[in-house]
Write a structure and sequence with these properties.
With about 210 residues, the chain is an alpha+beta fold. Helices cover about 15% and strands about 40% of the residues. The strands form 2 sheets. It has an 8-stranded antiparallel β-barrel with strand order 1-5-4-3-2-6-7-8. A two-stranded parallel ribbon has the order 9-11. Strand 2 and strand 3 form a beta hairpin. The longest helix is centred in the last third of the chain and has 11 residues. It is globular, with a radius of gyration of 17 Å.
């Protein structure tokens, strides 16, 4: 069976300390999603999203409580299956589904995640910046995605280190083992080893 080329995502992802204030446009996308399979970097996900609600992301932000309160505002929903990420490429098949069904599924099972997603055009690329809440606060992840391999990337100065193929930072990895459980170990690792940026994607242009 042939796999459609548009069922792959090409991205590079980076750990950040915070969202630069100038990139906060005041209207992030609010995302609540739940993972029903999250093992070995294989995942099955149901996602709901809306641009009409802004929630502060902190350790007390409860994804299910937010969904229950604002469920009528979530008008877009998707089911997605993902394979492992290898070299910045990951199989991803996503299909739109009824938001009412999606809300019931998320409230009834899986491991939920909540985040605000900001979008910005930086250099030559469109970027997504995710601010996580709940058990994954205060994690901030920046992502550059293209229709093909992300090569010769201009990397903004607020990107601390690259996490492209680190499964622990994938959303399904965070659903299984939230950032708050290992943030201190990661900080110690970063202090010991320093930042790292992958070199197999061409020339990294740093410090926008």
């Amino acid at each position: 069976m042939d796999i459609a080329m548009n069922d792959f995502e090409y991205e590079r992802r980076f750990f950040c300390r915070a969202l630069p204030p100038e990139l906060d446009d005041g209207e992030p996308m609010l995302i609540v999603q739940s993972y029903y399979v999250h093992d070995g970097n294989y995942a099955l996900r149901v996602r709901l999203q809306t641009h009409g609600v802004r929630i502060d992301m902190n350790a007390d932000t409860d994804p299910i409580a937010v969904l229950r309160q604002y469920r009528e505002r979530f008008t877009e929903a998707f089911v997605t299956v993902k394979g492992p990420s290898v070299g910045g490429t990951r199989y991803e098949a996503e299909r739109e589904i009824d938001a009412r069904i999606a809300a019931e599924l998320v409230m009834r099972g899986g491991r939920p995640i909540i985040k605000n997603r900001f979008s910005a055009w930086i250099g030559e690329d469109g970027w997504s910046l995710d601010i996580f809440g709940g058990a994954n606060a205060p994690l901030v992840v920046a992502e550059a995605e293209r229709s093909g391999p992300v090569t010769n990337l201009q990397i903004p100065s607020f990107c601390v280190t690259e996490i492209t193929d680190q499964a622990r930072f994938s959303n399904d990895g965070l659903a299984s083992r939230p950032f708050s459980q290992w943030a201190a170990d990661f900080d110690a690792e970063l202090h010991r080893d320093g930042p790292r940026f992958q070199t197999q994607f061409g020339r990294n242009r740093m410090g926008l």
